User: Which sequence fits this backbone?
């Protein structure tokens, strides 16, 4: 087994860089997907911005620099992506259908995704998937190496690209490299299952700064790097291969200003009233919004609600639930199975408890424009976010940010990264069906005064920072670590002691 794929490749000499120096970017973002995606409309296929706060945040950071975004344009449709998006240059990394099967569906989403999410489904380990993962990571690293200006900054995102930092460092030791993991980083007991654990660790340690969603994940990583690769140092600053690497928690958040503006929009407020009317003006609207993913605990939540209808705590004339399940990774057998069993549970629930003309659960398996999601947040009295494991979960934060009149209650899994910040939620262990039922009952019965107090506590915390602050704080730390490392290289710094920070 190769211990370090990048070491097979030597530094790229200036003369071998295919992009002329004048066209290289000072700041490069490398992510699995480009910030635009191809969608099918009545007029044919067109490129639209990919949804999500990350694109919004990075777009504004990138617009202030001579910058470039490197990513995969997606599997659907034909035609090349645009050359720019909102003034940012785009560089597409091509992935063939066979590579897509091994790299995206295989190693990324059937090995790493379940392993990093508490092995809720058994991870599958295939050597040929790993070979393609290395190959595609090298393709991304090479694209970044060719495109970044001397001494520039490259920010690499997420679990699909964990080898890129070290590959890029081998090719371009002059650049500053940051990596942020959007999903959980697992505890040692799980991570150790990975046959290529040392290569992944060495890949990440090619960064100057490795960022995680919560401190626990940062210390999982540092501890494993010390044990497995003999890195020295603390949970927040490691020394490896003669360099310093910063490690820290940078909890991602939302575009609060955008949500504030949209929730004040009269059209969206009217749409929220219309949704409640369409649902039959029930006393209580419960809402779930998730990608259709087995990590999200959607079935467990619906089973708990079904039991509350069965025991008479809830009734079809007073309580209605809306569950949005956004289609995701549909070519993966686990996801296909999850969809079938979820739809079975939904249909059983409706069959057993609905009234003529008014189903108790409105199930929407579709992509939803953000305006419509916002209207749903405004229409919902109780939001249910109950993943078995989640890096952060921005839906929980979006719901809280949208509740400007301090109404609304949040039932939240203690295993979502957001739980560390949203202490005013009704917390649940998503594996505990009775616990979910109890939390929903508490949310149904809570006094308006206590509900307001809980919501204002969560809003204070959520509105303190936005996604722009998140990006700035990561980039400021990256600059700081790189400066400390340069001082150390110049012999002006004592490397960190071993142990915890
Ligand atoms: O949460 C991790 C993530 O990769 C996000 O970045 C992305 O929005 C989501 O999962 C869906 O991922 P994809 O459709 O690219 O597999």
Assistant:
């Amino acid at each position: 087994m190769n211990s370090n794929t990048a070491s097979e490749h030597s530094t790229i000499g200036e003369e071998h860089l295919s992009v002329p120096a004048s066209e290289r970017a000072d700041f490069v973002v490398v992510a699995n997907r480009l910030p635009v995606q191809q969608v099918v409309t009545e007029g044919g296929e067109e490129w639209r911005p990919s949804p999500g706060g990350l694109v919004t945040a990075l777009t504004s950071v990138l617009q202030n620099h001579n910058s470039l975004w490197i990513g995969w344009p997606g599997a659907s449709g034909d035609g090349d992506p645009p050359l720019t998006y909102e003034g940012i240059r785009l560089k597409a990394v091509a992935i063939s259908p066979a590579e897509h099967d091994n790299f995206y569906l295989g190693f990324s989403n059937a090995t790493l995704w379940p392993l990093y999410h508490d092995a809720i489904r058994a991870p599958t380990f295939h050597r040929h998937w790993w070979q393609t993962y290395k190959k595609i990571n090298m393709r991304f690293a090479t694209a970044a190496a060719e495109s970044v200006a001397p001494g520039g900054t490259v920010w690499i995102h997420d679990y699909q690209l964990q080898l890129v930092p070290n590959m890029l460092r081998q090719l371009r030791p002059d650049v500053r490299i940051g990596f942020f993991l959007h999903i959980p980083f697992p505890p040692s007991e799980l991570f150790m299952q990975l046959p290529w654990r040392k290569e992944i660790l060495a890949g990440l340690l090619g960064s100057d700064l490795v960022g995680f969603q919560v401190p626990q994940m940062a210390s999982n990583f540092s501890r494993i790097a010390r044990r497995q690769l003999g890195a020295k140092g603390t949970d927040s600053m490691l020394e490896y291969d003669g360099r310093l690497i910063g490690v820290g928690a940078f909890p991602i958040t939302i575009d609060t200003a955008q949500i504030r503006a949209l929730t004040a929009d009269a059209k969206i407020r009217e749409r929220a009233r219309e949704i409640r009317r369409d649902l039959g003006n029930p006393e209580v609207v419960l809402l779930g919004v998730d990608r259709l993913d087995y990590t999200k605990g959607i079935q467990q939540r619906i089973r708990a609600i079904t039991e509350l209808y069965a025991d008479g705590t809830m009734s079809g004339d007073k309580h209605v639930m809306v569950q949005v399940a956004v289609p995701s990774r549909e070519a993966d057998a686990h996801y296909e199975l999850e969809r079938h069993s979820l739809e079975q549970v939904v249909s059983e629930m409706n069959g057993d408890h609905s009234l003529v003309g008014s189903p108790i659960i409105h199930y929407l398996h579709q992509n939803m424009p953000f305006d419509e999601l916002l209207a749903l947040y405004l229409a919902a009295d109780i939001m249910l976010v109950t993943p078995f494991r989640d890096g952060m979960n921005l839906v929980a934060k979006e719901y809280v940010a949208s509740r400007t009149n301090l109404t609304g209650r949040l039932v939240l899994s203690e295993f979502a990264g957001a739980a560390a910040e949203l202490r005013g939620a009704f917390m649940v262990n998503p594996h505990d069906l009775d616990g979910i039922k109890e939390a929903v009952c508490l949310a149904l019965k809570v006094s308006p005064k206590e509900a307001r107090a809980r919501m204002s506590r969560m809003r204070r915390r959520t509105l303190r920072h936005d996604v722009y602050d998140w990006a700035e704080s990561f980039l400021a730390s990256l600059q700081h670590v790189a400066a400390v490392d340069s001082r150390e290289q110049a012999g002006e710094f004592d490397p960190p002691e071993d142990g915890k920070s």
Remarks:
- Residues 467-489 form the longest helix (23 residues).
- The chain has two domains: 22-252+469-489, 256-464.
